[in-house]
Amino acid sequence: MTHLSNLYKSAFLKLKTFEDLVTRRVQILLVGLSVRHLHGPKKIAYGLDELIVVCVVRNGRPYIKSFIDHYLYLGVKHIVFLDNGSEDCTTDVAVAQGQERVTVIQTKLPFKKYEFVMKQYLISRFGKGRWSLYVDIDELFDYPYSDIVSLGSLLRYLNEKSYTAVVTQMLDMFSNRALFDQVSQKDEPLKDLYKFYDISNIKREYYRSRRGRRSNTVANDDIKILKGGIRETLFGTNFMLTKHPLLFFDGEAKHKDHGLHNIRNARVADFSCVLYHYKLVDGFRERVAQAARQETYARATHQYKKCHEVLEQNAGSVRIMQATARELGSVNELIDNGFLIVSDEYRRWAEVEKEKRTASS
């Protein structure tokens, strides 16, 4: 009887997986049919040592200039924005700022229902057989020794090792001043205004502790899943900080669970990277209230409602700056304090890259 029960359970799970796959493919098709091209090339040719950034955005006006400046300076080949009906000139600023290195497309499908599908659409359309980086408009990516290792060299390292994904940790950035309640409609110099971080309340979990991650091959066991951080300190709700946004889309490695936090069938690199996360910025209270009220982020509704509740109990503001906060000097200090992990092999390789750069200058 138990054997038959297990067979039925296995058959049901396979059927559900198949149905979910069909549904997801239909939804991706619907997103593709709904997309309208606004600016830039529709097809982007780039090599295995070049990177494209893709981003779903709605009303990202305060972030857009810092976002584009950061990624073009980092050395990305191209940026693709999928605008979801912005009403604050986001697309106009993106076009003016990025010119020929930015593509803007648009869909007005409901974000709450199609959030993850939109991300899958961007990765599958622009990233097949190559490296792509999916980030939110309030996330700025960086990697160990980026001061001496070019982005092209980094991707060549990943290719030589046959890696297909990189663990990336979210680091909440904030200011040492009180935040304004109103959402800014101007260009926010994010890295200048929000220089502080706090890793005193970080919890670490063995990477393979969840079943979904066991299909991955991880090159460095020192890399952990990180949770918590300053938002948990402030609002008392657990936040997952680990993502896998840098992906080589080979048809095997795939994100799961409706987001980029988990991945399957990936060969995970031997170092971790960082996403500077600008959630705790001016207008935070207003954004939280709106997300909690409209339940914009289906899988994070509880967290937003908890944040909103704490803000309301504290007259709309909380003291972000704790005694354990630090001012960020460079990405490399995150290696020294253990937030980021690098293997000995990656460290030696970076030293060789530094010698090459010195010799050629």
Description:
It is built from 11 helices and 17 strands. The protein has 361 residues and is of the alpha/beta class. The chain folds into 2 domains: 137 residues, Pyruvate Kinase, Chain: A, domain 1 (3-Layer(aba) Sandwich), CATH 3.40.1380; 224 residues, no CATH class. The strands form 5 sheets. It has a 9-stranded mixed sheet, with helices on both faces. A two-stranded antiparallel sheet has the order 8-17. Strands 9-11 form a two-stranded antiparallel ribbon. The longest helix is centred in the N-terminal third of the chain and has 33 residues. It is globular, with a radius of gyration of 21 Å. The N and C termini lie far apart (74 Å).
Write the layout of secondary structure elements.
Elements lengths: L1 H33 L1 E4 L12 E6 L3 H14 L3 E6 L6 H9 L3 E5 L4 H16 L4 E4 L4 E4 L8 H10 L4 E8 L17 H4 L2 E2 L4 E5 L10 E2 L5 E5 L1 H6 L6 E7 L5 E3 L5 E3 L2 E2 L4 E5 L6 H11 L6 H13 L12 E2 L5 H4 L7 H17 L1
Parallel strand pairs: 2-3, 2-5, 3-4, 7-16, 10-15
Antiparallel strand pairs: 1-4, 5-12, 6-16, 7-12, 8-17, 9-11, 13-14
Structural class: alpha/beta
Largest sheet: 9 strands, mixed
Helix content: 25-40%
- Please give the number of β-strands: 17
Calculate the mean pLDDT score and round it. Answer: 88
List SSEs in N-to-C order.
HEEHEHEHEEHEHEEEEHEEEEEHHEHH
Strand arrangement within the widest β-sheet reads: 1-4-3-2-5-12-7-16-6
Helical region count?
A: 11
Detail the poorly predicted runs: 11-19
